Amino acid sequence: MDPSILSPKSIAIVGTSQDPDKIGSVILRNLIDGGYNGKIYPINPKYEELQGRRVYPDIIQIPESIDMVCIAIPHQFIEDIIDQCVTKKVKSVVIISAGFKEVGEQGRELEERITNKLRSEKIRLLGPNCLGFINNKAKINLSFARENPGDGKIAFISQSGAFCTAILDMASEKKLGFSHVVSIGNKADIQENELMELFVSDNNISAIALYLEEFSDGKEFVTLSQKAKKPILIIAPGSSEKAKEAISSHTGSLASSFDTTIAAIKKGNMIFTENSEELFKLMQLININIIPKGKKVGIVSNAGGPGIIAVDRIEKEKLELSEIGEKTKQKLLSFLPPESSISNPVDILGDAKSDRYELAIQALLDEISVDSILVLLTPQLITEIEGTAQIIANLSKKASKPIISCFLGGKYIKSGIRILEENNCAWFNDIQEALHLISKLAEFNEGKELTKIVDCGEYLVKTKHKKEVEEYVYKDRIEILRDNLTIQILKEFKIDMPEQMVVSNLEQGIDFASTIFPVAIKATAQDLAHKTDFKGIFLDIRTITEFEEKYNELKENITKTTGNVAPLILIQQMIEGNLEFFIGANREGGSDIYEKNGLGFGHLLAIGQGGIYTEIFKDIRHILVPECREKIESILSRTKVSMILDGYRGKPKLAKEKLVDLIMNIQKLLVSYPEIISMDINPVMITEDRAVVVDTKLYVKS
Amino acid sequence: MDPSILSPKSIAIVGTSQDPDKIGSVILRNLIDGGYNGKIYPINPKYEELQGRRVYPDIIQIPESIDMVCIAIPHQFIEDIIDQCVTKKVKSVVIISAGFKEVGEQGRELEERITNKLRSEKIRLLGPNCLGFINNKAKINLSFARENPGDGKIAFISQSGAFCTAILDMASEKKLGFSHVVSIGNKADIQENELMELFVSDNNISAIALYLEEFSDGKEFVTLSQKAKKPILIIAPGSSEKAKEAISSHTGSLASSFDTTIAAIKKGNMIFTENSEELFKLMQLININIIPKGKKVGIVSNAGGPGIIAVDRIEKEKLELSEIGEKTKQKLLSFLPPESSISNPVDILGDAKSDRYELAIQALLDEISVDSILVLLTPQLITEIEGTAQIIANLSKKASKPIISCFLGGKYIKSGIRILEENNCAWFNDIQEALHLISKLAEFNEGKELTKIVDCGEYLVKTKHKKEVEEYVYKDRIEILRDNLTIQILKEFKIDMPEQMVVSNLEQGIDFASTIFPVAIKATAQDLAHKTDFKGIFLDIRTITEFEEKYNELKENITKTTGNVAPLILIQQMIEGNLEFFIGANREGGSDIYEKNGLGFGHLLAIGQGGIYTEIFKDIRHILVPECREKIESILSRTKVSMILDGYRGKPKLAKEKLVDLIMNIQKLLVSYPEIISMDINPVMITEDRAVVVDTKLYVKS
Predict the structure, then answer these.
(1) Are residues B76 and B11 part of one domain?
(2) Prediction pTM value
């Protein structure tokens, strides 16, 4: 996006009037009061002057050229104004008004007409149904926000206007400024990715916060976040929504749209937040540079109880309790009373005055094993609340590590909190909240180094069965591939499978089976797809007699269930695995997802324990395709079954490397056959030297 | 405990002086300022008068009899004063001073001497190492708290003085009163259970809050909580392993295991809280009677985004989104604009003024499917913040359901918050926090009906093998029972086991095995106990030849590992289970735990998935013995494997009732053989009609 779109040199406002409470009037006032130094053109045929400015009857009659038109009139009158904008060749339009796709079909059509008209003239559109935007770098407040909290180094993008007003109100109280606040509303044209791109590359912006109910293009969003190397804070509500399309019964429940969002947030090293308070507090911490290098926390406390609570919490938040070194312990010993605790948490006792806090905090600042310091204070009889706050303020100014204060109390601690706040120190009332946020920031900082952009191109392979697959692809229907084609595709990616053959009659079956006993016989995926509650599989068949009997029984079962009188039957050599593994995938987006203009997140892999209990234990982790080998190894290591791969309780080690190879190859398969909308591999039999794919279903859709 | 202990008619204070900052002086001042109407005797040989009161040189020389003596002088001078107390035959002593068991061995000895002396004279002791106590019902503030927030209906018991000061400071700010605040310190004599008993039976007290680092007698504590039928709020820090270390360096005592604590809290229908802020906010809610009948929440919002966040959170907090009935929907339709959402969350749109809030909240108050109402407000341009707050205040006064407000913002919402606060309404800045606390209170209320006190006596059985077991019991050593005894004990409780026999030679083995092939042969528990990393088990032996071979191999393995040249061998018929289950138990407390004076929680059962992967998947739930059958069924249903018991994906249903019988019988076994300190049953093989205990280890200790 051309950055000048957010810095127009002239702005016309449609919808101002003499009523000062009208949204258009508020916007005009905000723009003037904000000190905008471009030209302002209020538009209204009824007035000559408004708020001391000359008013124009319409856009056409403005003598100069216009960069931006802001529209805040009822939606039914907007198309006329849009036509004027086109005639006048303005550069951009901001539509504040509601009444578009958010209210139903008619609104959606209106929105589409307007958007198409503007797009064909290359006029950019912000909104509709938004609060406007604030660009404090250019002194533009083109919004109807109650108050602009002023300039700052965080950019904020919000899909919800109401959420914007809440955050701006918090920011006004706490004097937290923003470089930009952009309310994108229905995002008919300008969406989050273009703004992200702008803000990621802007060195004056140190963090980006977003409220998003849906992603315009998830894949690009993740890539932008990976590039950012600055904190991206995101609220993405709607997680409890049931998966949009429960495609296959397995993967449908194991790789939902929420799982995709979370995997994307992790992949992009973003900071996931769950509500407005949390988002705001994270912004405050980032604003005062409270971003710990790592997860090791040192604690100073004038009371044992809160220290214990903090230690509990450190473990739960996946932080680490610093191991205080011998040198620092000696230093602490030199000034603390003998009853103190000089290991972490450092308990400086209930009679500690501010000097003891100062020395203890200083000692932890000098201690290499400490990444951040949590200072706990309870207001005991001789506690110097203000003095200690002042000490913390002084130390924070020079410190290279974050100092976070938790003053526990209400009335008496207030004066201390005021000092901390005036000195831009990080303070909390609540140990749990403090550590929760510190953990998120430390994880971001550690993740920065590990984030690596993987290009889909690396995984793209020239495919042999494209044509055959395409025969199955429909726009509005999901189809399952026939077993023979599935097997051929897996072979293309060197995926290890049992000896197997699809046969059409008993004789063929006996010929094949008798060379490889014991075998399993199964209905094909296509027959199974119709109904799953019939016996469609027989295992461990060891003789020709048994084979004949089971073959006929299976054939009968299939015919009875599907009506297919000559079903195909899959014969597989039995594989005994030490572990049954599961690999599933769902695609979010269309089959053009890996092309330049494809929209969506792509394929989400679900990996973990396989077998019939996959859904009971849900020992599943997610991978947003494509990921590099190291990331896959690290994600795999977080499944519980990975302990079994590593050899559990004297059992042998299993072919973990082969499993990682398999997952890598499946990534290639999905990128190369993006028509696959869903995949179920269950089980993969893991032995000591193989990872054998026993059962695969591939579903396709455009 | 005699309730008069907390209402002494006369109090002597040792440790007052002319220095107004001395702890004793603060206590004297607090007592006088608090309006105590009993007699006060400051003690100090150096002064005649302090704070306008006549001073006595020592306790003996006070002419009248004395109810209570409060001591706040350095610990080394205390024994003299205690002697005076004994001579004077006072009723109780409060020791504020520190320097006892929390500082090491010498302090522990001093504490024991003093405690024993007082106990033998039947003089009660509060402390040492405490803040004192406040009894607002009797106008007694015998503490060195900075401020007493005044009378109220919640009693607060704290093991940490510092935690007390933090809570009192919060309460002073928010004007939340307490009936009693008791700082129990090292609880050398008076502990939480006696106070609980007092407060549970006091109808003026509507809730009890506790900060406890260790339980004086867990079993009794749970029973008291079960009887209470009023909210018991508890912070019990020390849940993580590291926190345990901090506790033992802090108070010199060990923490009970976290699982036991959590199981006890659930069994007692207590409300578990994790930090001071949460505890305090729950107190505030209880204080204004915000206790929803059930978990169904109705939402009114002037913005979509926060509504979605609330819906997400309701699912995560295990609350339920109310299904709004047709009649209420019609009512909502009658006054809301057509773009509103009349299903839950009710979106009354961004231009909602207070009248729309009023009608919508009233409609939800009348709706039967709503247990509590969450009102969300974002400060949009025409939002009537104060007006809406006033509406909520008015409705709350008459409402029979809790109304909880979340005003999202900072500067502009302040005036609204002030109105809510002045009118004792429940308000939050944070949706997540609001729903988290509402969930805890709703769960408490639902749990009240379900809580049932089970008497251990019901489970006590006259045992046949007491003598034999007692031979294994030592005070300082854990011993494992021999297999034959274990089998006999299990048989006593009609526990289903495979056909089995302990044999001492091959011939005996062949005689037994050949009648029941296939069999498993195992080293005995006693041989296995020494070392686990040798092959001590062979499964699925089907012939005499195979038996001979494996028997000899096993015998050799045992001899090589243990040195035992004539080991006993256990032979068991093979049982094929459809599910492997696990039942374990640990005892917290001594072997007298189920007797009247036994201290501790008793046995904690762990039940869940068995087999070799028990520790990998940790699909385990806990039962604090004894529980009734319904509770066991309900806890069992929360394990993941219970889905398998119920027949998963077309598999047959398993013998769930037999498993519940087994757990009930194991409860009897543990109550009847309390010498068992630890038990491992893994696996229990669950078939369609049996729950067969295959492998059991019983450990005993006094």
Answers:
(1) yes
(2) 0.93
